[in-house]
Fold:
Amino acid sequence: CAVSFILRLTAFNLGDHHMNTIKVVGIDIAKSVFQVCVWMADGSVAWNRKISRQKLLHTLRQFPPQTLIAMEACSTSHFWGRALISMGYDVKLIPTQHVKAFARHQKNDANDALAICETACRPGIHFVSVKTTEQQDIKALRSARQLIVEQRTALANQLRALLAEYGVIIPAGLQRLQRQLPEVLEDGDNTITFTLRRLLSLLREDMQMLTERIDVLDKELAELSSQQVAYHHLLTIPGVGPLIAAAVVSEVDATQFSSGRELSAWCGLVPRQHSSGGKQRLSSMTKNGNRNLRTLIIHGARAVMRCVQKRDDSLGRWVKAIELRRGFLKATVALANKLTRIIWRVLTDSVDSSMNRAFAGS
Structure:
């Protein structure tokens, strides 16, 4: 059984080979059966076994405190991470793309657990912070809101397609659809049949219901996020609204980054580099890291760009100069990069943003 393996492992550590301690314990997470790999300091694998969900914590409890336990940052990893941290262990959550590079030979749980051990000891890996329950709540609200927004978008596209089949064209935009759809349903001179009118009426009610749910989630998200001190500081940054601020407090641990550029690189907002033989080539942004957070920050930059021509402050002058040299789209991404660096500074210093300091000398 698993406990006997632990006892033998403990005896091995306390015997003649007492200097050969545990380096890392890698866990391949699953629903019912977990693969646990124990990697020793000399590079040998003490054992690599399957452990049931019911016995996992009891098995891990046999390891000494402060033992490094590594897992992939996937479903349920934050739950297990909080549980293991409360037991006194050092937990690292590894992005899945890094583990894949070390998964040699065939794809199975044993090789995956071993690859997790190797990746955890690899220098330069940016690990994922274990989320608190408060961060998980904000993340859950954001995920549910995103799902409902996608459902409403699909429903709006369906409504437009049905109307187009009867020769009724409504311009793009959700607000235009919501405003013109009642007029279309009440117009008796168009070619829409009774059956379609009844169907469109039902779909319109569904769309209104989804909109109401989004509004409720927005209020709850703002109320929950406002309990975080950093949330109020983030709202002082131009282009950062309640959704972006909520995403930052639930996704970003500023202590993991030594500079704003590292946070920007983690979001995928820095140029892609391809260098060889002393020649450096920079191209489009990398699009690495958190896709949802990157998208929100770019949307925030676009909101600033819409009114940047009216700004006569340091931010406006900085953006106008880049837009004149590189164009609107590249200026938008550059602004998103800059906003991400400001976000890091605001989170690190716990202060409101200052445009004069952020764009000093620009």
Q: What stands out?
A: The chain is about 55% helix and 10% strand. The longest strand covers residues 33-40. The CA atoms of residues 267 and 291 lie 7 Å apart.
